[in-house]
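User: My instructor asked us to take a sequence, write out its structure as tokens, and then describe one feature of it. I'm not sure where to start. Here is the sequence I was given:
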Amino acid sequence: MPEINILEAIRQAIDEMMSSDERVFVLGEDVGVRGGVFRVTDGLIAKYPRRIIDSPLAESAIVGACVGAAMNGTLPIAEIQFADFIAPAFNQIVQEAARIHYRSNGDWTMPLVIRAPYGGGIHGALYHSQSIEAFFAHVPGLKVLAPATPYDAKGLLKSAIEDPNPVLFLEHKKTYRLIKGQVPDDDYRVPIGEADVKRPGEDLSVFAYGLMLHYCMEAARMLAAEGVSVEVVDLRSLRPLDIATILASVRRTSKAMVVHEDNLTGGFGGEIAALIGEHAFEHLDAPVMRLGGPDVPAMPFAKPLEDAFMPSPAKIAAAMRRLAAY
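Assistant: Let's start with the prediction itself. The structure tokens for your sequence are:
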């Protein structure tokens, strides 16, 4: 199988879905001639000149137009240039897209995908580094995905485009070109709502997604050299959440840690910790541990401060050692 990066995997998914279904189109800022600020849609306007559409700098208009289009027989992909800019579209996503099916008593579907590059580690500072998953994973009716590998990114995006429900598809921008992996040429799907055990282990379970999945894998390799067997579970789908895989992992290892780069307080890790505490308490040999970003308003620009904010393999390995020592 060819080895590609996450950016190319996402482009392939969009290209192949547009080629096979004329209902698919992309709307967003600079997605056309420029190919997007990260070049994800680079070259697609030449193949689909009427379906790769540059929008004004208005996120509420991007998502609002796609909501209407999705209700009228198309399969829109709305691109938010940076996840930090999604706030103007909050009402369209939460009050409209996520509730259309329910409020119409099932008469309307909402086959809408909203792509949003998120996360830090690229010196983007406060308006280009935010993690937004906790805000939107709280909303019933909205699916939230955060793939970490090229294989998962391509397969999950295809599944998202075909899903009759609105899907927020989060792409960690630091992984776009950094993370590579084998992706088959064959047409395939990764099911929404299924986690994946990326590294089996026996002594403790670690749950992560996006860039943090790779940092946890690196930390697990450090611990393996010290005789500690760490199981690393890639959540991939934050809503719906694969509760069965999470609980099965904890029941095997009896220790659990959740890692995300978003602020610790109110972060998505709290939901995982609560589920484990409620449904697997009797299997725990230690408290559930969370590792996240500090509770400061935004990620700093200066590299030393950005490094202080971001979880790293070294920080994660140190936390794993503390948990293993219980």
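For the description part of your assignment, you could build on this observation: The longest helix spans residues 6-20. Try explaining in your own words what that tells you about the chain.
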